[in-house]
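This part of the workshop introduces the protein records we will be handling. A record pairs a protein's sequence with a compact description of its fold. As an example, a complete record with its sequence and its structure tokens follows.

_____
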Amino acid sequence: MRLDQYLATSTELSRKDAKKVITKGRVRVDCVPARSANMQVADNTLVELDGSQLHLPGDIYLMMNKPDGVISATTDSSQPTAVDLLPSQLASKVHIAGRLDKDTTGLLLLTSNGQWSHQVTSPRRDCPKTYQIQLVEPLSTEAKVKLETGVVLKDEDKPTLPATVAICAETTIELTINEGRYHQVKRMLAAVGNHVAGLHRLRIGAITLDPALAPGEYRELTEDEIRSIFGPT
């Protein structure tokens, strides 16, 4: 980790202000004054600011109930982002693990741990995602069978992996998939002659959206939820 990033992570300083205090000689690394903001420091390196030892915080793991109209990005100059809904001290330290479309609501995971987020999104991991889907019209039995055996998406040759379909109401289903292709859920329903009117993510792996979270609210993950992502490969 770069020294300026270490300071920004372990203090209230921005990266810009961290560079300034380094330049002024206020930072010592292993008891030696540091002058370069881009020097690499390990997690166990002794870093001091004005004589006080700094410590990296533990990794951050959050779930959010993403509202409609918010994009899954850390920054955007023209549109509200999911990270904008967090306090600034959290927003600057996390990234999104598994994005949702702007008009898709529900479970969004955010973390400061890159290895953990890779486990969530890697196509080599068996990390199923479950969506509640409002359909334009009822799902036919034939369409359900096709979804459960795999369908060929428009402009692709390889069929999707078998999905799990649960009929909840006349035009409401829950669909569980084990892939993350571009706009996959919407394209799967289009491939069987139906269309998505509303899409809400309920679950990622063993992590289920907390029903107590209103749209835009978030909470920390429990230890069991965090560990569930690092399950057997």
Remarks:
- The chain has three domains: 3-53, 61-123+210-229, 129-204.
- Residues 7 and 18 are 6 Å apart (CA to CA).
- The mean pLDDT is 92.
